[in-house]
Amino acid sequence: MTKRLLLGAAATAATAALLLQPAAAQAASPKPVTVSGKLFKAWVAGDEAKALKYGSPSAVKTLFAYPYRTPDVGPKCYGKVCDFAHTSVTVPGALNGIRMIVSGSKVVKVYTSRHLTKPSHAAKWLYKAYLANDKNAAMEVATFKAITQQFKAKYQPGDQIHQFMGCEKESKGYICHWYYEGGAANMHVRGSKIRGYYVDHITYVAD
Fold this sequence. Notes:
With 207 residues, the protein is α+β, with helices and mostly antiparallel strands. The chain folds into 2 domains: 32-112, no CATH class; 119-206, Nuclear Transport Factor 2, Chain: A, CATH 3.10.450. It is built from 7 helices and 8 strands, in the order ααααββββαααββββ. A 4-stranded antiparallel β-sheet has the order 1-2-3-4. Keywords: Signal.
C-alpha cells in the first residue's frame, strides 16, 4: 500500500512539473530592451541574416530601409515598445527615429521617421494612419499637435471618409485639402524634398 502511495505521489509530481514548464519558459523570455537592442546592433552592423533572428521579415525590411543616420539614444522601453531617438539630427515627424514593438523573443513591428518627397504623401500617410487607428504610424509623418488634432475623434467603421482634394503652396510650406460633408480639413505641411515633408498642424473649415 505504501509503495502504491509513493508511486502515485511521484506521478503527480511529474505531471505538475510538466504543467509548470510553459510558465517557466514564458518567464525566461528575453526582455524587450534586450531583443530590440540585439536587432538594432544587427542593423548597425548591416547583418540582415542576424537581424532576422530578432525581428520578423517585415520589421527587418522596414528597419533596413531607414533613410537617416543611426539614432544615438536608446533603447528606451515602455512595456513592449522600445524607442531609439536622434539627438544630433532633426528628422520629420514626432517619432524622431525608430520605434520597435516586441512580442516574446522578436520585434514584430518597426515604425520609423519617414522621408517623404511630396507634401501629398505626408497628408495621405497621416490620414491612412488615422483610418487604421494607428498613432505610431501617424508619428512617422506628423507632429504631436497634428496627431492630437487628427485623432481627436476616433475613426469608427462606417464613418464618413474624407476626400483628398490636393495640395497647394502657402507662405510657410503647403496646405493639403480634405473635403467631407459639412466641412473641410486642411493639413499644413512643412519640410522640403531634401529633408522630407511632414504634417505640422490641421485647421478645419465648416460649411
